[in-house]
Amino acid sequence: MKALIIGAGIGGISAAVSLKQQGIECEVFEAVKEIKPVGAAISVWCNGVKCMNHLGMGHIMDKLGGPMLNMAYQDGKTAAIMTQFSLAPLIKEVGERPCPVSRADLQSMMIEHWGKNKIQFDKRIERVEQDQQGVTAYFTDGSTAHGDFMIAADGANSAVRSFVLGHSIEKRYAGYVNWNGLIDVDTSIAPADQWTTFVADGKRISLMPIADNRFYFFFDVPLPLGLAEDRSTVKDDLNGYFSDWAEPVQKLIQSIDPSTTNRIEIHDAEPFTTYVDQRIALLGDSAHPTTPDIGQGGCSAMEDAVVLGQAFATSKDIRTALLSYQSKRNQRAKDLVLKARKRCDVTHGVDMEVTQSWYQDLKKETGENIMAGLKETITSGPLG
Q1: Concatenated DSSP letters for 177-245?
Q2: Long-range pairs for 134-140 at CB < 8 Å and ≥24 separation?
Q3: Eight-state DSSP code of residue 19
Q4: Which residues pair with 5 in a beta bridge?
């Protein structure tokens, strides 16, 4: 049995590894000549780490995961601590630590684990056909590939999705712009072992420790679509949006390298329930585009891959296995998309009264409520 995997990102490689565990041959195709990750880093929460362990890639998390042992919120204007607590109780309860990692390093090590020479690059899919004998992928370079089934892990802008759904979907602008990148750890900005978040006015700045003594940073600002901003204006833009924020924020802005800072207008899409059409299945962002507000986008793709493997472990009938995968992932993935959307709105001041109330709640937070929410998200995954 052979699967065609469209996309060599986190979801695609996870799917290939998961299917290989079930004895299924996989051919992996990637549209770009060279993978250049969108975003500097990714927060792989405990459920994602469990998935990587299950898939035999836990060593990647061990190597790349930063020492995120504590969590804090600070007032963006004064730097006063609103809440600060250890994540040790959460880690103990769920049995795994969270691992913020460099996205480039993660993808590089996952590709190395699979085998870079086993991935066909510069293969942009144009159309697909399927019948009772299998599925055929047609690429823009004129080549084709045939397999028994296809897993489309080709991202939020999936080219395969319309073949599965029978129509295109509209992306929904989440209302804010995100700047992100990496800097060396500077403890005058934030502790080296803590996820530190500054909040005020519906804006957010976060720093997470990753491996090699680096911080992953991001800035969120509610803004209209399509502003004439890019890497050439990064520091001026951020200086304008955060001119009256506290000294650690000013120091962070001066520390960033505009040439390696990403600017992304954040989108998601209304959840849909169809992931499968006959022999083709969507996986990861192609199936459930989400905002990054609860750090579950990559984790959800990893969960998809685990459940896909479990489905084929139960049945080698393609139709049965793919429909089982779909039914087991629908509600979970939808819940994560909507939970991220809800958190997005609260964080970014869609209703400033709600956001201000959240700020006040943070000042009374001991960590128990936040960790309870994280625990529920983590333990609702396929590996508990």
Answers
A1: EEEEEEEE--TTTS-TTEEEEEEETTEEEEEEEETTTEEEEEEEEE--TT-S--GGGHHHHHHHHTTTS
A2: 134/279, 135/4, 135/278, 135/279, 135/280, 137/4, 137/6, 137/29, 139/29
A3: H
A4: 28, 151
Which is it for strands 2-6 and 149-152: parallel, antiparallel or unpaired? parallel
| Residues listed for the chain | 384
Q: How far is CA 349 from the centre of its chain?
A: 22
For the stretch 36-56, what's the b/e string if a residue is b when 16 or more beta carbons lie within 10 angstroms of its beta carbon?
A: ebebbbbbbbbbbbbbbbbbe
- What are the tens digits of pLDDT across the range 247-268? 999 999 999 999 999 999 999 9
Q: What are phi and psi of 15, to 5 degrees?
A: -65, -45
Cα 372 from chain centre: 21
Tens digits of residue pLDDT in 263-295 = 999 999 999 999 999 999 999 999 999 999 999
Are 362 and 82 in contact, with CB atoms under 8 Å apart?
yes
pLDDT band with cut points at 50, 70 and 90 for residue 13: very high
Question: Order of strands, edge to edge, in the sheet holding 119-120?
Answer: 119-120, 25-29, 2-6, 149-152, 280-282, 276-277
Q: Give the CB-side neighbour count of residue 31, counting CA atoms within 13 A.
A: 18
Q: DSSP label at 351?
A: S
Pull the structure tokens for residue 383. Answer: 């590996």
**Position 36 confidence tier, pLDDT thresholds 50, 70, 90:** confident
Q: What angle do CA 195, 203, 349 make, to 5 degrees?
A: 120
Q: Return the structure tokens found at 47.
A: 């459920």
**What are the start-end ranges of the H helices in the chain?**
10-21, 46-54, 58-64, 88-94, 103-114, 161-165, 234-241, 247-255, 297-314, 318-347, 352-364, 368-379
